[in-house]
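Appendix B, Record 12. Input sequence as logged:
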Amino acid sequence: MVRSRAYYGVLPWNMANTRFSISTDPAIQRAIKAHAEAAGLDVSAYMVAAAIAQMAADDAVSAVFAPLDAENAAALEEAAEISPAPLPALEDLTAEEQHLVLRVMRSAMGSEGPGEAGAA
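Logged structural output:
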């Protein structure tokens, strides 16, 4: 999903702001404050810049994967329409295939006799 890129531009100086709080570990909060100060920004401006950069990265990834996501969705829809092939009757199998089926069934049912587990 590609989101609106309107947030990438510079916001007008007179645009109203909405306040919201972010909870984080105190060590992370100190690191954010230190990085914001080093960048010459207040914490709000620094966090907004970081969020905008992350949204741009997310949108770039979404744009790259959008065609693949569409192909996957189409393939899933197509696969949902496919009916599985009917299972063959036991008598339609070769003798070796029949033996394998019977071994698996005995093993699953716990009815293998002594020495049958590894028999071919």
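The radius of gyration is 31 Å.
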